[in-house]
């Protein structure tokens, strides 16, 4: 994540990408009314979103899924392929399983409905800037289990690098548990869980918890039907 600018200055830099001017204006109003956040660029389509993000190097991109020229998922895929990319939170009018799964597979950090209240948008930005993923366990585990379960998984080679405890943490992550819940489950401190999660992400070359959940199902670490909301 290109959080250096936001961390160094204390200000979270945000790009808003949506093809509707009124939506962009509303999002800007919400963001800029929050101390410590500023909008550094806007885009009306996916192509422009990539260009604006490349020029401004924000900490977070709020990306509409449905846009002309290039949709938000394709734009997010390009942006997330850069070295040290910003976090991307997908915005949509419809909470469809297909969109959510595609967004998570693309490596985005979250998924937010446009009808979400302003405080939820602000909290979403804070969550992803803090290095976490914006996941609703009840929705996320159901969706990933459904889509990942369509193909027979093949365990990737990196999986063998995990210790038994790290594998256990990955399984609990895939069930949608928070660090605090994992700590209670394993009878360890929350700081210990954070260390295990960081090592899991590093060893598996994953960006965040969202990718870890996808990985767990697609690699067969967790089987469809094993998830709990």
TrEMBL record:
Residues 13-129 form the Response regulatory domain. GO terms for molecular function: DNA binding. Keywords: DNA-binding, Phosphoprotein, Transcription, Transcription regulation. The modification 4-aspartylphosphate is found at residue 64. It comes from the Bacteria. Gene3D superfamilies: 3.40.50.2300. GO terms for biological process: phosphorelay signal transduction system; regulation of DNA-templated transcription. This is DNA-binding NarL/FixJ family response regulator. Pfam families: GerE, Response_reg. PANTHER family: TRANSCRIPTIONAL REGULATORY PROTEIN NARL-RELATED, TWO-COMPONENT RESPONSE REGULATOR. InterPro entries: CheY-like_superfamily, NreC/VraR/RcsB-like_REC, Sig_transdc_resp-reg_C-effctor, Sig_transdc_resp-reg_receiver, Tscrpt_reg_LuxR_C, WalR-like. The keyword Ribonucleoprotein does not apply. Residues 155-220 form the HTH luxR-type domain.
């Amino acid at each position: 994540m290109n959080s250096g600018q936001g961390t160094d200055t204390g200000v979270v830099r945000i790009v808003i990408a949506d093809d509707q001017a009124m939506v962009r204006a509303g999002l800007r109003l919400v963001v800029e009314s929050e101390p410590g956040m500023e909008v550094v660029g806007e885009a009306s389509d996916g192509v422009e979103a990539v260009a604006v993000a490349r020029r401004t190097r924000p900490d977070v991109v709020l990306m509409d899924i449905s846009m002309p020229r290039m949709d938000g998922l394709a734009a997010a895929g390009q942006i997330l392929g850069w070295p040290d990319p910003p976090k991307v939170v997908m915005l949509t009018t419809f909470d469809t399983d297909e969109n959510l799964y595609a967004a998570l597979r693309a490596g985005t950090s979250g998924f937010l409905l446009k009808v979400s209240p302003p405080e939820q948008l602000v909290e979403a930005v804070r969550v992803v800037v803090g290095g976490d993923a914006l996941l609703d366990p009840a929705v996320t585990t159901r969706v990933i289990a459904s889509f990942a379960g369509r193909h027979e998984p093949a365990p990737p080679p990196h999986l063998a690098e995990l210790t038994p405890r790290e594998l256990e943490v990955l399984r609990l992550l895939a069930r949608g548990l928070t660090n605090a819940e994992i700590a209670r489950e394993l009878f360890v401190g929350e700081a210990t869980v954070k260390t295990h999660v960081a090592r899991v992400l590093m060893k598996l070359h994953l960006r965040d918890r969202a990718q870890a959940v996808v990985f767990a199902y697609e690699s067969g670490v967790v089987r469809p039907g094993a998830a709990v909301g």
